[in-house]
Amino acid sequence: MDEKMSIFKRMVRAGKRTYFFDVRSAKNSKKFLIISESTPSTDGKFNRSSLLIFQEDMESFFIALSEAKELL
Questions:
Q1: pTM
Q2: pLDDT-derived band of residue 27, with 50, 70 and 90 as boundaries?
Q3: Do the Cβ atoms of 32 and 55 come closer than 8 Å?
Q4: CATH number at residue 20
Q5: What residue numbers bound the domain in which 58 lies?
Q6: Is the pLDDT of residue 3 over 60?
Q7: Predicted local distance difference test score (pLDDT) of residue 19
Q8: What secondary structure, in 3-state letters, does 26-70 show?
């Protein structure tokens, strides 16, 4: 079995960017979220960057995200 089991996957297209949301469960049963962004580069390939948010940090992460959203 894969060490990091996928529980949820969602892809969101936003113009030239594509976002991926992937919730996984580690071997120790702790869950974490990976948010990845993929953008096309000038050489025809894709640039990808990811952010991992661990289960114990989710609450404060989403509070800060919600506060930032209110300013947009």
A1: 0.83
A2: confident
A3: yes
A4: 3.10.450.700
A5: 5-70
A6: no
A7: 97
A8: CCCCCEEEEEEEEEECCCCCEEEEEEEEEHHHHHHHHHHHHHHHH
50 touches 34 (CB < 8 A): yes
3-state secondary structure of 72: coil
Place of tokens 């025809």: 44
Place of tokens 């989403």: 62
Token pair of 53, please? 């948010």
What is the number of structural domains in the chain? 1
Distance CA 8, CA 26 (A): 13
The tokens describing 16, both together, are 């030239």
pLDDT at residue 65 greater than cutoff 90? yes
pLDDT of residue 1: 43
- Evaluate the CA torsion angle 63, 64, 70, 72 in order and state its sign: negative
